């Protein structure tokens, strides 16, 4: 059986007392550029045993896992999950609809895709009456295996997208900071202006023109 974080997370889901458990999480909510990526993962706990479950030994919240280990866990999750659903919400849609609305839509949609689930878990907050029946868990990505798996899928997917965008927009260094605000990213936006991957609805200081020298 898995040990450490993986065992603890899997134990939480098994204690729900159902066979099919779905978890949902997102990556990129606080980023200045690039998409919001929302993922849902469905585990079949009747089948998740033996060699298959050992692959999840180090499963954890994606923020607690090094990049190379996240890639390994991504492959493990994709091999163990009964179903995975992903939505990639571009910067333009976030500007049009708002971050919170976009995030809710993505989480609702991936949970709806996992229709076989008997329990649906989401990290953070409830998704409103339009969502399938679900349970919101504060810090869910450190408590539930299904949510942690979704966080891994969302993060790895988004990092891969940002590396592709870096090749299209090399001035901004997307592969190094994944679109989050860093001094180098802010300096690049001031020097070159935002590109089509930037969320212009954000009140970022780097979007403001530098004051003219006296």
List the helices and strands and how they pair.
Elements lengths: L3 H11 L5 E8 L8 E9 L5 H5 L12 H14 L2 E7 L1 H7 L1 H15 L5 E5 L11 E3 L7 H24 L5 H4 L5 H10 L22
Parallel strand pairs: 1-4, 4-5
Antiparallel strand pairs: 1-2, 2-3
Q: Keyphrases for this structure?
A:
single chain; five-stranded mixed sheet; 5 strands; 15% strand; globular
Characterise the protein shown here:
The protein is of the alpha/beta class. Strands 3-2-1-4-5 form a five-stranded mixed sheet, with helices on both faces. It is globular and about 55 Å long. It contains eight helices and five strands. The mean pLDDT is 93. Helix 3 packs across helix 6 and helix 4 packs across helix 5. The chain starts with a helix and ends in a 22-residue tail after the last helix.
